[in-house]
Structures are given as structure tokens and as C-alpha cells.
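Read as chain and fold; for instance:
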Amino acid sequence: MSQYARYPSLKGRHIFISGGASGIGACMVEHFCEQQSKVTFVDIDEKAGTALAERMQAQGAQVRFSYCNVTDIASLRQVINAAVDDFGTIEVLVNNAARDTRVPLTELDVETWDELQATNLRHVLFASQAVFAGMEAAGGGSIINFSSPSFMRRSRDISAYSSAKAGTIGLTRTLSRDMGDAGIRVNTVLPGWVITERQKALWWDPELERQVLENQSLHQRVVPADVARMVLFLASDDSRMITAQTYIVDGGLV
């Protein structure tokens, strides 16, 4: 990471990341650790989360992993409170946890719809609510919510997921006003087609990748680090007057 920016304002800052055990989330954990931030991250993949935390700790990072299913709001609040006890006020919240389940329109039922809203949208509000008082007392903070350009591309079979991700952008803009008087900035990041291990296992094939790269303005793979570096910037004081904004990191696909 030496050729990329270091942010002095992130040193010692407490970062809370949901969905941090793998993929883009894990990359963000690594990047914040490299910035010498204090990092708390949660995930439902206890094995991967524990392994990542141990690896970062072995490198001298201040990092803590806890199991948490973000659809359980009581548990999420409890983990956030415990994180504050461990590392102090959460100054940066990254609402990354999500699941892009494909469900054909004719097969989507009420239970699946509700579960996908809880997994992709509901926790964003309640995690933000849980850190608000601490950020307000500290004089400000940064909240970074994750959306997806899938609804802009009119992708098939993800109506519930796309609805949640479109809703995240609206929620971001509303929260930015609700929290602005407290000096809290709220922004949204939309990763493009980042080929994580999950993507490889479920949907990747060479022809699809060829089509994606051909349709991007920049004909290179978008990798997790590209997204993580945008999040670092939005978490740092370098972006102190940026709020209510939406950033697409997709090589110009949409």
C-alpha cells in the first residue's frame, strides 16, 4: 500500500465495520489496520473473522472481531456498546454487511423480502442510531454506507436486494441532515463488479467478465482495494466537508 495515501487523521481512530470477515469487508479491515486505526469488525463467519483478527493482531494491529448477525438489532447494539468499552467512541462506522441473494420475481415471497431488507438495509439505520450519541459527544464522525449499482443496471432477479440498496442511498441523504448538526458526515459507496471469492463461487465465468470489462470505461478488474481506498478517504479528515454524496467505484460501468 506504500504507493497510496496515508491519512494522519485515521491513526488511533476507532472504526467499526460490519461484514468484515471476507471480501471487500476484510480488505477494509486490513487497510484501516495499515493506517494504524483501532478496528472493530463483525460478521456471521466466525472462523474467517477470527483468523483475520489474529493475523492482523500478529502484525501489531489493534483489532477486535465479534460474531454478530446484523439482522438481530439487539445483538448489534450490544456489540457496538462492547466495542466502545474496548476501544472508546466509534468515530467511523462502515455499514458494509449485505447479501445479494438472487430470487426470480415469481418466487419472491414475503418472508424472503423481509429477510433481505433486514440483511441489507434495516441494520444500516439502527447501527447509525447506536453510534450517534457517541459521535455527537466527540464533535463529529463519519458514517459510510454501502449500496450497489445493480439497480442502476436493471439487473435481473434481485428486486429485493436492489430495493434495499436503492433505499440505502435515500437513507444516507436523510441521515446526513439528521446528523449534520452534530458534525457527522454520511456518505454512500457503491462498488462495481468486484470479483470476491463469493462472486467466483456463485456467478463468475470468463465470458461474463469479458463483457463487464468491455463495458467499463476502464478495462481493468475492480478489486477490493479500490473500494477500500475510497472508504479510507471518506473516513479521514481530508473529506471533512463531504456528506450526503454517492460514490460509484466500478471503472465506469454505469
About this structure: The chain has one domain: 9-248. The helical segments are 23-34, 46-58, 73-87, 110-138, 159-180, 197-202, 206-215, 224-235. The domain at 9-248 is CATH 3.40.50.720 (Rossmann fold).
